[in-house]
Specification:
15 helices; eight-stranded antiparallel sheet; six-stranded mixed sheet; 21 strands; alpha+beta
């Protein structure tokens, strides 16, 4: 009989922290959580008071915390991270008891190798998104319900086994398309222990290491290739801080469905929202509106390229935060710690209300039109004049749709991360500091500023005196 408290904590841990189905490796069958509970029960009943005493490492450690750590050490399962085979994968229906287990040969070969590696880590169970989630028409919505929990499942796994089907060594593994998929970002960051295997199921690097997140050479390569700091790769904590930096990590990744570009980021920010397909880039816009309100980090507005179809103050995807839109004059990750600007900006009926330090460009002109990198758009260089003495902005171009050409007669810079003053209605462009801006235009018929799209994040700096000016509330 299990010691008091152990069985209850075991049940809670299974229900809240592990997948609802797992592959029983010894049978190569998918089993439900109740069967997992039954298979682990002998080990749970074997936990003694002496075990609890030996796992108590300081006098104030709570008993339930100690028991939970013991349970986690018993409930060991591996998770698979991979790209789906083109000719199909093994499904849940093919992995249930009594199934003829037909499946595609490539998918079954991958699953067998994964389970073999998992068993080598001492895991009796394994989880794969291909066959542990019911994707049939008989269970609509199961995938949607699983999405918010996947980060937690990967975090609590004993090991995450990554199969890179296009790579074999440390020299070529960063070119694998696994690194270009939206969903694999959380599968890289969530696990505590991870192991990369190449196309033939040999380790990518260091055959003796059981955790590639502890290998300094591989970590350095990962960090360089993904632009993610080593400490975040080793131990990532979900939350709504450093939003822009995290979006830059996701900026070169893509998904088959547009909406997954947003839904694959939910767990990284610890955000919950309704999963809905068929709404295109509005899904990313909805996520960003939530992040704007929760984080109040104004560098979320430091993006470039084409705007969202619904939210003109946001890009349609994380690609708008790509490093290609930075020219070296502004480093969002480095400058994040000193962000100021409007801490009370808010989205009202789909429009952003924000205070900006507006600097009108009285003598700006435009260069020649050239095609933009995205079809259907063109760009023309901004030739700024009329700035205050010793003040400069970086070289940027205005991006416009070929179907809606518009040349504003008035231009202005809206400094977003201005410095604070003793007067809440005034802001500073600080001497020696690079600030980022939004570019606005208007013509003689308009009474309000319209945000313009640019090919790079716009920046401003002054080597003269700091510029102190009243703030203007802008709705866009």
């Amino acid at each position: 009989m299990a010691i008091k408290g152990v069985f209850q904590i075991f049940q809670e841990y299974l229900r809240e922290n592990t997948p609802h189905r797992l592959i029983a490796i010894s049978k190569m069958e998918v089993v439900e959580q109740q069967q997992v509970e039954e298979l682990y029960m002998p080990s749970i009943k074997a936990v003694t008071e002496r075990d609890i005493e030996q796992h108590t490492f300081h006098p104030n450690q709570r008993r339930d915390e100690v028991i939970r750590n013991i349970v986690k050490g018993i409930v060991k399962y591996a998770v698979l991270s991979h790209r789906w085979c083109r000719d199909g994968e093994v499904t849940l229906q093919e992995m249930t008891p009594g199934s003829t287990k037909i499946g595609k040969s490539s998918g079954r070969h991958k699953l067998a190798n994964f389970c073999q590696k998992a068993a080598g880590y001492g895991c009796g169970f394994a989880w794969a998104d291909t066959c542990c989630i019911d994707r049939s028409n008989s269970s609509p919505g199961e995938l949607d319900r699983a999405m918010p929990q996947m980060f937690r499942w990967y975090r609590n796994a004993h090991v995450c086994i990554v199969h890179l089907a296009e790579s074999s060594t440390l020299d070529d593994f960063l070119r694998d398309s696994w690194f270009l998929q939206s969903w694999t970002l959380q599968e890289l960051l969530a696990p505590i222990r991870i192991k990369f295997y190449g196309r033939t199921w040999n380790p990518i690097h260091n055959i003796r290491a059981d955790n590639d997140k502890a290998d300094q050479r591989l970590l350095a390569a990962l960090s360089t290739g993904t632009e993610i700091p080593v400490q975040d790769i080793q131990r990532y904590w979900a939350g709504t801080e450093r939003v822009r930096e995290k979006l830059m990590w996701a900026s070169h990744r893509t998904s088959r469905q547009v909406e997954d570009g947003a839904y694959s980021l939910l767990a990284l920010f610890d955000v919950h929202m309704h999963v809905e397909y068929g709404i295109g880039d509005e899904a990313f816009g909805r996520l960003m509106v939530v992040l704007l309100s929760r984080s109040q980090e104004c560098d979320i507005l430091a993006w470039a390229g084409i705007a969202s179809t619904k939210y003109v103050f946001l890009p349609p995807s994380a690609q708008g935060y790509s490093a290609q839109y930075l020219d070296g004059s502004y480093n969002p990750s480095h400058d994040h710690y000193r962000l100021q600007g409007d801490q009370d900006m808010m989205v009202i009926d789909g429009q952003l209300k924000v205070k900006l330090l507006m600097l009108e460009l009285h003598e700006a002109t435009f260069g020649d039109e050239i095609p933009f990198l995205q079809d259907g758009y063109h760009e023309c260089a901004l030739l700024p004049e009329g700035l205050p003495s010793n003040t400069t902005i970086n070289h940027v171009s205005i991006v416009s749709s070929n179907n809606m050409p518009w040349r504003p007669t008035k231009l202005a810079l809206g400094v977003v991360d201005y410095g604070w003053t003793s007067d809440d209605e005034e802001g500073l462009v600080e001497k020696g500091r690079t600030h980022f801006c939004l570019l606005f235009g208007a013509d003689d018929t308009q009474t309000s500023w319209q945000k313009l799209m640019t090919d790079k994040v716009v920046t401003i700096s002054t080597e003269g005196s700091s510029i102190r000016q009243r703030l203007e509330t802008v709705l866009m």
